[in-house]
Amino acid sequence: MYVSLFIGCAIVLDIYCYTLYGHLHVNVSFDGQWCQLKAYLFYVSGCGFFYSYLLQAIYRLCRITLFRKPSLQTFRLYVCGIVVQWLLSFVQVIPVLLLGTFEYLPHDYHCQIAIHNVRGLLIGLALVHTIPISLTTMCYAYTMFYIQKISATIKTARQLATDQRDFLVLKRIFIVLTTLIASGMPAFSIGLYFQFTGHLPYWSTQFQWLSATFAMLIVSIILIFVSPNVPKFRMYFAQ
């Protein structure tokens, strides 16, 4: 999760540097394979970020619903899961690249899915966001159903308390994903507005990146409180 977040932030910083340089040297162009590759890696990092939450959701699901199978909770298994997570991320974004969805924006000096390209936005949404978010939501829904309908009849009070803690973490993961989805809706709405009116505000791309940056900030803050080690740090510094 943190690796994908770091890669995404590094690419965003690189994009800002290119954009700033382009505004200072208006005749320059950065169109090319490297521009396309950076856009591809940015979406790979985003896909990997969502899959990291799916992996956490699967872990919590196994701890709660499959607690009698410790083999599904081993460290080695989830290391393999991380490898699979990144393989899926690289593979899923390849169609976005091959379909020519990434465009060079001459006024912004970088490549991305243009905000007026609703087809491209839908392809990116389907391949990058929908699959991991849908699976994570299914894990969340089934875990909630299990705790409410089944868990109380077969587990001890101590096990139920552990389940509640795991479910709380899973709930916070769902809140983070909801925040990320909500952050992308304004940009998507601008794309739909362009389809109906043929008018695209000049600040649309900047607004898209502003909403994405704001979402990263919110997620970073939420992650501080989601982390199970935060109470330990508080107790340590309170001493």
Automatic annotation (TrEMBL):
Keywords: Membrane, Transmembrane, Transmembrane helix
PROSITE patterns tied to this protein: G_PROTEIN_RECEP_F1_2 (PS50262)
Top-level lineage group: Eukaryota
Protein name per the record: G-protein coupled receptors family 1 profile domain-containing protein
Matching InterPro entries: GPCR_Rhodpsn_7TM (IPR017452)
Organism the protein comes from: Adineta ricciae
SUPFAM superfamilies the record matches: Family A G protein-coupled receptor-like
Chief site of localization: membrane
G-protein coupled receptors family 1 profile domain: residues covered: 1-235
Gene Ontology CC terms: membrane
Segments passing through the bilayer: 41-62, 74-102, 122-147, 168-194, 206-226
Subcellular location: Membrane
